[in-house]
Amino acid sequence: MAKTTVERPAEDHIQQNELIDLYRLMLRIRRLEESVYRLFRDAKIGGYLHRYDGQEALVAGVIPLLQLPHDKVLCTYRDHGHALACGTPAREVMAELLGRATGCAGGKGGSMHLIDPPRGFLGGDGIVGGPVPIALGVGYALKYRARMLGGGNHICVCYFGDGAMNQGGVHEAFNMVGLYKLPILFILENNQYAMGTSVARSTGQPDFVLKAKAHGIDGEKIDGMNVLTVRDAAQRVIDRIRETGEAYFLEMECYRFVGHGIGDDNTKSWTTYRTEAEVNEWRKRDPILQLGNYLQDRGILDTTQMDAIDAEVRQEVADAIAFAEASPEPPLDSLYENVFS
Amino acid sequence: MAKTTVERPAEDHIQQNELIDLYRLMLRIRRLEESVYRLFRDAKIGGYLHRYDGQEALVAGVIPLLQLPHDKVLCTYRDHGHALACGTPAREVMAELLGRATGCAGGKGGSMHLIDPPRGFLGGDGIVGGPVPIALGVGYALKYRARMLGGGNHICVCYFGDGAMNQGGVHEAFNMVGLYKLPILFILENNQYAMGTSVARSTGQPDFVLKAKAHGIDGEKIDGMNVLTVRDAAQRVIDRIRETGEAYFLEMECYRFVGHGIGDDNTKSWTTYRTEAEVNEWRKRDPILQLGNYLQDRGILDTTQMDAIDAEVRQEVADAIAFAEASPEPPLDSLYENVFS
Amino acid sequence: MATMRYQQAVRLALTEEMERDPTVFLCGEEIGQYQGTYRVTEGLLDRFGPMRVVDTPISEIGIAGMATGAAMAGLRPVAEFMTWSFALEAMDQLVNHAAKITYMSGGRIQCPVVFRGPAGVGTQLSAQHSQSLESWYAHTPGFKVVMPAFPADAKGLLKTAIRDPNPVVFMEHAGLYGLQGDVPDDPEFLVPFGVAAIRREGTDATLISYSRGVHLCLKAAEALARDGIECEVIDLRTLVPLDIETVLQSVRKTHRAVVVHEEWKNVGFGAELSARIHEHAFYDLDAPVERVAGADVPMPYAKNLERAAIPNDNDVIAAVKRTLS
Amino acid sequence: MATMRYQQAVRLALTEEMERDPTVFLCGEEIGQYQGTYRVTEGLLDRFGPMRVVDTPISEIGIAGMATGAAMAGLRPVAEFMTWSFALEAMDQLVNHAAKITYMSGGRIQCPVVFRGPAGVGTQLSAQHSQSLESWYAHTPGFKVVMPAFPADAKGLLKTAIRDPNPVVFMEHAGLYGLQGDVPDDPEFLVPFGVAAIRREGTDATLISYSRGVHLCLKAAEALARDGIECEVIDLRTLVPLDIETVLQSVRKTHRAVVVHEEWKNVGFGAELSARIHEHAFYDLDAPVERVAGADVPMPYAKNLERAAIPNDNDVIAAVKRTLS
Ligand SMILES: Cc1ncc(C[n+]2csc(CCOP(=O)(O)OP(=O)(O)O)c2C)c(N)n1
Ligand SMILES: Cc1ncc(C[n+]2csc(CCOP(=O)(O)OP(=O)(O)O)c2C)c(N)n1
Ligand SMILES: [Mg+2]
Ligand SMILES: [Mg+2]
Asked: What are phi and psi of C4, to 5 degrees?
């Protein structure tokens, strides 16, 4: 548990600037997430609000490898990081959280429903397990385009949580994906808990990879706290999916550093299901910390440069908040718009 | 494929009269099923109608071993055999098929909804996969009674088809059963087809036992055309479930000799999905034929005795039809009864 | 113009739209190799191949998600529910996903998907297989809801549905599949949504229905005409969008209205029609709007009980007479 | 009599019934170790142990089946949906199993199960989490449908629900959990189903609602009283069975009616109320029944739009004035 720097896979040919981009992306997600509780308490954000702190490697190690917008990304309500990784500007993310007309969903979606189709991001989903049957359809469309309409070998990446593995719709979709052989990368964000329920307390059999294999989808489990491990595995399996057209299942072990959502935002509610010691233990494997140490150890970035990046990122978040706050609410007469296209 | 007599498991201590009872039960089911298409064509039976011909061993080898009504049985719309095996008189089954007040569900259920709670039979279910989440609840209630209310070690037996393995609700229930460790025997009636869809065309991975194991339920696959194999396995796992309180999954390979239902009742519609040669091959393994040959080989029954049993059984079916036809329709003013208890 | 059955008209619409638009594909249980449970899709697998006519496992959530996701990714899927009763399993994908994605995304994404299949009651299928629940879908913003009564509409409305950029709930009536009628050959024959059809003109009462209910109304109207009572019969064709104007115009003329459907009465679509007619034409009405609908019971199996649970032309006649008394 | 919050009243009903009847048990997501998402079940795991307070995986079909099956086997389960929106996933188990098993079996089997949990709108939960769909359940024969507006009813109706031999849909309103009120201590305090409560007497118009809508009506009635308009406010408490008699009696007195609910208007429960009032009291009405309901749109996230989508007391006041004009 105590390694505090990433181990870089031997055959990795990542460039230094890519490493710095990875670091910056993870930090952008972290700093944005750190800003939202205050905005909620100031009643600027409403509804449910789920942060991605600690899980940044899962998007940073994967999404930059995609051919967006032709490849497609789907995820859960814990979706701020996915939007940023797909290239949705922090301004549009923040404006959506504040319910403004300039938000990426025009203020109608909110935190759980970020979306950005022109960038290949088909959105967050408030229903546990919900995106998986949708991914089946998106994957089918990609295969259909490739076979019938002259499209390229594009793939769909679908994120979902450990709790979602107990949803029937996920199993129906897995089986159909296994049957039809569709180009989908399933990423299980195994952050150990579904709200207050640990994996051990919610499954009759905890080997999730076996559950995918039972439906004909191959897979493996990897360390999701190490962004280079994630990136390496992702590159390998994305290539494989493009080549074979067959789905793959990556279980990524990770941890959420804060509560499930704004309703579970203090250590008092945590104590019903986890200890502070456990959280602190995992915090030692913070993906940003690990990559930061690595960059420093290798002399790629020094403290001053890292501080400069942090300052830039903080500035970006502050700008996003200012932009959002200055943006208008959606016009009242848009209430009945968009029910139909 | 060509064995035409059952092989009797070495350690089996079954009595001769029990063997004869098994034979009689399977024959009762077969003869009743053989009578229903004519009644449908004469417009005496309506709705959907699904026969069990060829699958008799699955109920005859299991249900007589239960402690009814304390043990409970649930199954699909293909439920005539299950009702007979639970002890529901042929008269009440037939009257239900004809929609008469004397039917086991008062004429309100019909072929797909036979039920007989006083005999432990909690009914057929018209929804593919539907009985499995119900079985989770029944199994929970049995465990609850044993632990909290001084009940005995009773079990629930739940039957469902190969097509049902693609239903999400089945996976949710399996996982919860695996998690809570409930006394349920799941019996997969793998008759190779779901309507016109073969197993190979509906699953991403055809090892059904693995699908159960993925949720923490142990299991195995057996030959469902040999009633003594079924009986032997059932006795073993029923004992085990009573002892451990843990669920077990038995996949029984079998075959339906006739079409899926009355809408698929001739070889013309079969040809879209199976050949007559295939049907004939499986008919050689007819469970009744196999046990009949066994009884003859061992000198337990001779042809005269077998003919006598058949005559008795045919008489029972004829009597059931006469009873049903003589029975009144449900009174019209019962239309609004039973919406609520 | 050709004479064909309702079920063939559905098939013709599918065939024409698949010919016309390579992004249209079908998915559902037994629609391909088996040729369709009700033979609606007979021959289409041979004609269009397995990428465009997709046999699925018995996985209603998967089917609904597959169609919704493919629509979000720019195709035009037509998913079949073997019967609409099985759509109960897919309600989350239908309501919380297909119907809402356009709104939740602030219009950033379209979802041009059609869900179709047989609904309806009347052949002793009993409780679990005898419900259509059109009132549920009409209640949910984001669905268009279409229920044709005649072969020509089955064709023209389904073609409109497939071309519509929104999720469409398209309910056929299994009891109408055999109905013969004239159907235009024109591959551009489209029946617009939100335009009711007056199937019979009349002055004394307005009968409003859809799907098989229209035929009940026509039968009742004929019988009443023999008594000198002339009913106007309106076939709504689409429940969402609803052509309330045609209804109100008729009611303002006849001063009496009877709404008819086979589905359960309590909080059924007839309740909405009744409420709206009263709201907009209260002072034109000579009697309260009558409702003729299915009995509020799970459908019984026994033939006599089933018959009693389903409305018939005599029930419509009696209701018309109540409005006249 | 004790003063407590609505949410505590729900907990008290659960506690008392679990004490009284050893066959009552609870199941649902996060109801035990986590103490309940809205803390409704706080402390119950400690008190009754894990057999009787069962934490489940996120498996709504499984939860519904578990409760239905256990009820069929003679227990009295109370299943919690974390919110009623998630019950969409379990619709087949709820409608095609729980609601119908008694009828399909010709009364051979009982199904004494309660499905409960928070519903309601108003805290920017957006489209997928803001719907209660009581009209769907009321439409389906076999369910009793209960929607308390006050703490005392929350207790008394839930106790009745648990003792009822039928499936009960019990919808709490998340926005009422904090509401304080007097609640009888008596462990035999039961509120019967099918008996509406007149929350305010009046002569000029009848306001009919349930759940949080009742509070809107009371607020509107107070404001109107300042203008000399006296409204009678009826709290239905149960939608099925429906106490239509109390409604009709009041309408026959006031000659005007406004039905109010937060749920979508189109084919909502208000449509049924409107239809029935017109059917039975047409000649007593001085104006058509007005409906005040949620906008027919998936719930938008933005605060201003959400506010516009949910009815408020001013909408009720305006509707009353329309009936008077
Ligand atoms: C079908 C459904 N049931 C319940 C919920 C309420 N809910 C929201 S998030 C959550 C926990 C999900 O856990 P997991 O899948 O592990 O994802 P994580 O939150 O850990 O990222 C629950 C129960 C929901 N949104 N959808
Ligand atoms: C949820 C659902 N979808 C579809 C159907 C229609 N249907 C009835 S039986 C059947 C085939 C089931 O096959 P299987 O589970 O293998 O059982 P078998 O009929 O072979 O005994 C189908 C598709 C249904 N009843 N329920
Ligand atoms: Mg999790
Ligand atoms: Mg089968």
From this structure: -155, 170
Compute CA distances D119 → B13, C29, D82, D86, D205, whole Å. Answer: 59, 34, 9, 10, 28
Q: Residue ranges of chain D with pLDDT lower than 50? A: none
Question: Which residue type is seen at C107?
Answer: G
Give the distance from CA C161 to its chain's centroid. 12
Chain D residues whose CB is inside 8 A of the C103 CB are 127, 297-298, 300
Nearest by CB: B105 against D93, D108, D141: D108
Here the tokens at position A40 are 């909620």
- Of all residues in chain A, the percent with pLDDT exceeding 90 is 92
Binning pLDDT at 50, 70 and 90, where does residue B27 land? very high
The answer to whether B340 contacts D96, with C-beta atoms less than 8 Å apart, is no
Residue A119 has pLDDT above 90, yes or no: yes
Considering just the CA atoms, what is the radius of gyration of chain A in Å? 19
What residues in A contact B174, CB-CB < 8 Å? 204
Identify the band that residue C77 occupies on the pLDDT scale cut at 50, 70 and 90. Answer: very high
**Of A127, D104, D201, the residue nearest B47 (C-alpha):** D104
Element (H, E) at C186: none
Domains of chain D, each with CATH number or no CATH: 2-183 (3.40.50.970), 197-324 (3.40.50.920)
Residue D156, SS3 per DSSP: helix
Which of C243, C61, B236, C82 lies closest to D59 in space, CA to CA?
A: C61
What domains appear along chain B, each with residue ranges and CATH number?
A: 16-264+271-327 (3.40.50.970)
| First and final C-alpha spacing in chain D | 43
Q: What separation in angstroms does the CA of B75 have from each of B133, C123, D24, D107?
A: 12, 23, 26, 19
Structural contact between residues B214 and A210, judged by C-beta atoms closer than 8 angstroms: yes
Residue A2 above 60 pLDDT? no
What's the gap in Å between A167 CA and the centre of ligand 4? Answer: 24
Residue A268 confidence (pLDDT) above 70: no
Give me the long-range contacts of C30-33 (CB less than 8 A, separation at least 24). Answer: C30/B195, C30/B196, C30/B197, C30/C55, C30/C82, C31/C55, C31/C80, C33/B196, C33/B197, C33/B201, C33/B272, C33/B273
Q: Which of C86, C297, C305 sits opposite B339 (nearest CB)?
A: C297
Q: How many other CB atoms are there within 10 angstroms of residue C107's CB atom? A: 17
- Starting from the CA of residue D93, give the closest ligand: 2
Average pLDDT over residues A19-46: 97
Q: What is the mean pLDDT of residues B207-233?
A: 98
Question: Cα(first)–Cα(last) distance of chain A, in Å?
Answer: 51
Residue D235 and residue D247 in contact, taking contact as beta carbons nearer than 8 Å: no
Beta-carbon separation of A108 and D302 below 8 A: yes
**Residue from A50, A51, A192, A195 whose mutation best tests the ligand 1 pocket (most atoms within 8 A of CB):** A195
A330-334 average pLDDT score: 98
Cβ proximity of B177 and B215 under 8 Å: yes
The CA B212 to ligand 3 mean position distance, Å, reads 23
* Residue pLDDT, tens place only, C250-303: 999 999 999 999 999 999 999 999 999 999 999 999 999 999 999 999 999 999
CB contact under 8 A, B203 and A170: no
CA-CA distance, D136 to D92, in Å (whole number)?
13
Residues B74, B117 contacting (CB under 8 angstroms): no
* Local confidence band at C97 (pLDDT 50, 70, 90 cut-offs): very high
- What CA–CA distance (Å, rounded) separates A280 from D122? 36
Q: Quote the minimal CA–CA distance from A202 to chain B in Å.
A: 7
Return the ligand number nearest the Cα of A131: 1
Does ligand 1 lie within 6 Å of residue A126's CB atom? Answer: yes
Set D16, D17, D60, D80: catalytic member: D60
User: What are B197's strand-pairing partners?
Assistant: B194
